[in-house]
TrEMBL record:
The gene is LOC115827602. SUPFAM superfamilies: NAD(P)-binding Rossmann-fold domains (SSF51735). Keywords: Oxidoreductase. Gene3D superfamilies: NAD(P)-binding Rossmann-like Domain. Pfam families: adh_short. The keyword S-adenosyl-L-methionine does not apply. This is Retinol dehydrogenase 14. It comes from Chanos chanos (Milkfish). GO terms for molecular function: oxidoreductase activity.
Amino acid sequence: MYLLYTILAALLCFLVLKWTKRRRYCMDVKRLDGKTVLITGGNSGIGKETAVALAMRGARVIIACRDEERAAKAVREIKARSHNMNVLHMDLDLANVRSVRDFCKSFLQREKRLDILINNAGMPSVLDWTDDHFSMCFGVNHLGHFLLTNLLLGRLQESAPSRVITLTCSLYKYQKLDFQDLNYNLLPFFTYCRSKLANIYFTQELARLTEGKGVTAYAVHPGYVQSNWTCHYSVLFRILMRVIMFMFFVSCELGAQTVVHCAVTDEVTQHNGGYFSDCRPAALRPFAEDAGVAKKLWEASERLVKLA
């Protein structure tokens, strides 16, 4: 009898956890025929599910990532699931400033439109450095996307109304930026938190600078998602995290819903520069809404990536 009660209690806990993991789906059925979407890191996880969802709506979808073999496999899967053959891959390494510049030059030569830019790719909290000597989290999660967006901004304005969606995380609340050491890389978890806070400031300043120019910007917290970010860690850690993710995290398909919502729904334009979670606007900590800090970060980022 004790064993039965134990099993029932465990089942009840599991069902409660499943209930708390429920998230909203994007219910907008708007089509994207004739639109071009660029998704960084679209070969796996949330990026790939976002690519499938937008390709199903008729968009031309370009996934930008550095692993050509994985990208080719992802393109085949996206085409098969969406029944849209207008899906392709372009090489991009966000950890290398030259690669970002080369990618943008190639993109602008090949593509006449850019309606939706989704800055999805990201690095977890790893103690590593980019080719340009930036901490990996800050270099990829913020600086790489900062440069990419700026170099493609003219095409976004030409294609207006257009949108820039940058994935962030609610973990931003555990750190503040230190302008004496933006490249902080001593404690990987805190470096990751800072990079996600930078994503929020970047979105706010981008919205301010492009106001009235037909480009709107949104920062999205997709929730805690069962993605493959653990591939950067040891086997033991991956096994442990798989168990935790199964219990507490949501699927990549669910994680992509707020991204899709911000990409297609008309009502989000009322919240330009806003922070979204679970397919709706969400509140930020007061320090994350400091326009002065957002402007200062933008100017510092311009200097770091040598953006004229």
